[in-house]
């Protein structure tokens, strides 16, 4: 581009406009634009209610006066009666840009099937591109990310920047189809420093010493510092996050003396015998101010406040009715048939949680019970440690998307979907960074973009001793990375690689996992998931290990992590192999919930098994 793109951002929302809700999508989009397009700027922002004419007025004014090259709207694209942003946009644009809307919908469908309800409209008015984005902060940012590579070229086309147009067309025509969605920026496509070696003169031995699994994990933890960054989240969104603060009870629970049972509040000193039923106390009623007197009782329900003077609750089952009202609907006199004791069936003030007591501890991973406790305490916002942002990519000339038609010699990518699903299973939200060919410059370009957005990048393939395995060299020569280990004494997973380097003043972590599907999954469980938990300051970051009896054989010289299914039978753990343990056979992970460590050439009957999933009975 010969000029910086000028962006305008319009938030469309009745609730934000009238102040009952804070606009987070507009400011977040502004921040995102500055990060995606560092040389560009947001020149206009607006907050407007869901009124068709007012939305049209902003779009027409900014476009017709040449104020903005790109206008992003957020909000008003739903099914509510007042959601009219697409209708306003359609009345303003002179040409539609359906490809942008299609891209956003198709990519969003990979995240949620509800994207089928999207009504976004994209188009052109004069020389301004107008794009409707969702109203949610997350949805708006994601959809902008889906179309970001097309925006600069669209602006060039609208403004007739011929040199840029020719350059992009040349780039797209000369790149292989698999690379065409890579970011077109000078820094990301400049040639790699790595030169492909002559296959005849390449190294026949790895320069990296072989580490044991425990040693490799120690190296990772030594090079990774747990985060100090925190953020506040609503307690209902805190599930599975790690607490960054101790949580104290500001008030006692219960805050009043409460009945544990349905029955009658009485004075224990009155003993057994008849009682006059004075009142009824239901849960939620204000406590009675009058003190209970000798010979009186109050009918009370579970959770109701115990009146002053009463020191026991007698359950309904231990009473009989002596006298009823004239209409036979109310109890007048009852008989207490079981001798009450002081304190019987009463929850005293603070008996569950004393005031100012420590309830939840910093470092706890938040469970449903934690969420319930915070609700009970009225703790609406809680401080948690920030999670590392994670990018996942695949490498290989032969690797194609699951939906592609395969040519001879090609395979469908199962590694990236497996990795992404594994990470989501353990409550992380990875970003798909695409698939890169075995070419140093292509690898550099994809890593450049992946590291610009993520703290941790995980790749599958490209880290072995093959002629086209260039990942390690690109990391070292183009990014100045330190390879902390490049081989681990294990099966499967020998080529597993871990590296770090400083990028943009932040320490980035790289995991290069093997290309064989099972190796990729196993090494993710052994190295990646525990590291992510550690970075998040979880006090428990390793998977549990149990001892199980069984019969497994390892004929390899390396310790083997065999995929097994662990069950409970007659009170004992038992296990069975999931079948052929070859590293390309992904099926043997399907039924597995454990990894059994089998030492080479040893006859054992007891095995340490790492449990990564639930055990069935």
Overview of this protein structure:
- The chain has 617 residues and is α/β, with parallel strands linked by helices.
- The protein folds into five domains: 6-163, MoaB/Mog-like domain (Molybdenum Cofactor Biosythetic Enzyme, Chain A, 3-Layer(aba) Sandwich); 213-227 and 388-535, 3-Layer(aba) Sandwich (Molybdenum Cofactor Biosythetic Enzyme, Chain A), CATH 3.40.980.10; 230-252 and 352-385, Molybdopterin biosynthesis moea protein, domain 2 (Alpha-Beta Complex), CATH 3.90.105; 258-347, Molybdopterin biosynthesis moeA protein, domain 3 (Beta Complex); 545-611, Beta-clip, CATH 2.40.340.
- It is 26% helix and 25% strand.
- The protein has 16 helices and 31 strands.
- The strands form eight sheets. A six-stranded mixed beta sheet has the order 2-1-3-6-5-4, with helices on both faces.
- The longest helix has 19 residues, at 517-535.
- The two termini are 63 Å apart.
- The model is unreliable at 161-188 (pLDDT under 50).
**What Rg do the Cα atoms give?**
33 Å
Main sheet: strand order? 2-1-3-6-5-4
The strand count comes to 31
User: Which percent band covers the strand fraction?
Assistant: 25-35%
Residues in helices, as a percent range: 25-40%
Count of discrete domains: 5
């Amino acid at each position: 581009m010969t000029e910086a793109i000028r962006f305008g951002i319009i938030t469309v929302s009745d609730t934000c406009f009238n102040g009952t809700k804070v606009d987070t999508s507009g400011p977040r989009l502004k921040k995102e634009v500055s990060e995606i397009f560092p040389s560009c700027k947001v020149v206009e922002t607006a907050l407007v209610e869901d009124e068709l004419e007012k939305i049209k007025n902003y779009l027409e004014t900014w476009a017709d006066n040449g104020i903005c090259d790109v206008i992003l709207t957020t909000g008003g694209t739903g099914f509510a009666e007042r959601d009219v942003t697409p209708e306003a946009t359609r009345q303003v644009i002179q040409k539609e840009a359906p490809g942008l809307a299609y891209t956003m919908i198709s990519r969003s469908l990979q995240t949620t099937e509800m994207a089928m309800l999207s009504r976004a409209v994209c188009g052109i008015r004069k020389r301004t591109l107008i794009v409707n984005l969702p109203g949610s902060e997350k949805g708006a940012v994601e959809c902008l990310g889906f179309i970001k590579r097309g925006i600069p070229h669209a602006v060039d086309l609208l403004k007739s920047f011929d040199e840029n147009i020719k350059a992009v067309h040349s780039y797209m025509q000369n790149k292989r189809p698999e690379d065409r969605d890579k970011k077109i920026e000078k820094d990301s496509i400049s040639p790699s420093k790595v030169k492909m070696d002559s296959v005849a003169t390449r190294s026949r031995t790895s320069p990296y010493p072989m580490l044991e699994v425990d040693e490799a994990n120690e190296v990772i933890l030594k090079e990774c510092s747990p985060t100090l960054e925190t953020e506040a989240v609503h307690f209902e969104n805190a599930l599975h996050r790690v607490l960054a603060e101790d949580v104290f009870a500001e008030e006692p629970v219960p805050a009043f003396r409460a009945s544990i049972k349905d029955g009658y509040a009485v004075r224990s000193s009155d003993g057994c015998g008849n009682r006059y039923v004075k009142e009824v106390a239901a849960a939620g009623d204000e406590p009675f101010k009058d003190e209970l007197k000798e010979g009186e009782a109050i009918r009370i329900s579970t959770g109701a406040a115990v009146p002053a003077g009463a020191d026991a609750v007698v359950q309904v089952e231990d009473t009989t009715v002596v006298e009823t009202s004239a209409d036979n609907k109310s109890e007048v006199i009852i008989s207490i048939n079981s001798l009450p004791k002081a304190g019987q069936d009463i929850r005293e003030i603070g008996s569950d949680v004393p005031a100012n007591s420590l309830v939840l501890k910093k470092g706890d991973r938040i469970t449903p019970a934690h969420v319930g406790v915070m609700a009970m305490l009225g703790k609406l916002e809680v401080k948690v440690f920030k999670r590392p942002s994670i990018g996942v990519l695949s490498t290989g000339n032969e690797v194609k998307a699951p939906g592609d038609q395969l040519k001879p010699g090609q395979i469908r990518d199962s590694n990236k979907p497996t990795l992404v699903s594994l990470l989501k299973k353990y409550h992380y939200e990875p970003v798909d960074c695409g698939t890169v060919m075995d070419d140093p410059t292509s690898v550099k370009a994809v890593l450049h973009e992946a590291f610009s957005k993520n703290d941790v990048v995980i790749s599958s393939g490209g880290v072995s001793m093959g002629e086209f395995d260039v990942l390690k060299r690109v990391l070292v020569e183009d990014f100045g990375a330190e390879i902390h280990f490049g081989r681990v004494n294990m099966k499967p997973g020998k080529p597993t690689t871990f590296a770090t380097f400083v990028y943009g003043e932040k320490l980035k972590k790289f995991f290069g996992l093997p290309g064989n599907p099972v190796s990729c999954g196993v090494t993710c469980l052994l190295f990646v998931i525990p590291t992510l938990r550690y970075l998040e300051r979880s006090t428990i970051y390793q998977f549990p290990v149990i001892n199980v009896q069984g019969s497994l054989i390892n004929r390899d010289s390396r310790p083997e992590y065999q995929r097994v299914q662990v069950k409970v039978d007659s009170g004992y753990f038992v296990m069975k192999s999931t079948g052929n343990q070859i590293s390309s056979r992904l099926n043997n992970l399907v039924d597995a919930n454990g990894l059994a460590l089998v030492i080479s050439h040893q006859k054992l009957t007891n095995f340490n098994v790492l449990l990564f999933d639930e055990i069935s009975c």
